[in-house]
# Entry
Amino acid sequence: MPRAAAPLLGFARLLRRCGFAIAPQQISSFMQAITLLGPRSMADIREAALATLAPSPDRRDEFETHFRSYFYGNGAPAIEGESDEETRIKDDRGMREEENQTTRQEKGGELSSAIEQLSSRDFQLDSDSLAPFRRKLASALPARRSFRTIRTRSRGTLDLRRSLSEIVSADGDIPSPLLRRRQTIPRKLLLLIDVSGSMKLHTADYLRLAHAAVQGAGRAEVFTFGTRLTRITSALRIRDRGQALARAAAQVDDWDGGTRMGPTLLAFLSVPRFSAFARGAAVVILSDALERGDHAELETAMRRLSARAFRLSLATPLAGDPRFRPATAALRAVLPVLDDLFDGSSVKSLTDFILSLARPAPAAAAIWKGVS
# Structure
């Protein structure tokens, strides 16, 4: 990249840190637009930014402030509520980190922490007990009707173009009409795995389950979150489980650290390409949901996820205790938007649930409302 382009790329990164939804394709268009314009003046750069980065009307004044401060001032403007720690996003497709969603430390709770603690993990291999789950997964996932069509002999709509072509080929004779129907395909499966210290005893099992899910389903995505957000899908596509888990372990930096569930889920939703993974998908969050302090960000993130997902489920190992009740403020707040709140303390309970996703079930609030 030319040295002169670095400030322009820095401005786009500044906007993303401030919460503007900007896709990588928009940044490329921004750079191309400046190339086409010359540019002859700062007004050309401003017009290119407005046309390609497309700030929403309600944030236009904020965009202008950032533009003036970045290009005319001595530095970027302060972001309200900014702290020294930010949720970082690592995408295994490009092995590149992006600073996103500013966050703050929060206090409260015994097992979880918001303080970032970076570490690594080494997973021990055992027998492949998930082979039956891997074989059944593709056919067990919920399905949807695609806009693409396939040929069928019955129960379809008339394929007029091909039928007319057949009539012409048969010199005007009327053969049997050709039919087509919309194709049925499995929905995407999205796994969001909590790798914080309070989930340390379950992380290894969750990663093995995620590897089996990626191998068994054609459209599965896996992310880990703690104090950072990391996409590990590409690592888990390696067929050999030992190599796949070793690659994933090397990519994740925040093993057994603190928990910032709300901010990391908001960071996931702030990246358009990641947010698209949740659209129409069966989303399963593997976490104890021990959010620190104010749970407003977690509630916002869960509501937005629920609006995008076909089904939103939370698997908590705490539900393995018969005395468990969703009594924390965070769980009470998100329970109305959850489709499922179930036991995530064992691999068997998780596999049984995922294989039952296609079957309808009462909402989580209805199930837990009658539990005293």
Remarks:
- The first helix runs from residue 6 to 17.
- Residues 147-184 form one domain.
